[in-house]
Write a structure and sequence with these properties.
Layout: H1 2-23, H2 29-63
């Protein structure tokens, strides 16, 4: 659940950046700093999603029985 939530909440700031660019306020200092803050939020949330996915895959590999080598 945390993986899906992180991905959804990581996309929302990117939509905010698209809105800032579409409205033309990216050329102001406020628009620039808002875009940087939103990119930082997206980066943190996508990093969290990546780490959750990696931990999920590692836990799945540990729970699987080891493959036996043919003799």
């Amino acid at each position: 659940m945390m993986l899906v939530l992180s991905i959804v909440l990581g996309v929302v700031p990117l939509l905010g950046i698209a809105w800032t660019v579409a409205s033309g306020t990216i050329t102001t200092v406020d628009g620039l700093f808002m875009s940087l803050i939103l990119l930082t939020l997206s980066g943190i949330l996508f990093l969290n999603a990546f780490l959750e996915l990696r931990n999920w895959k590692l836990a799945k590999q540990k729970s699987a029985p080891p493959a036996q080598k043919p003799s």
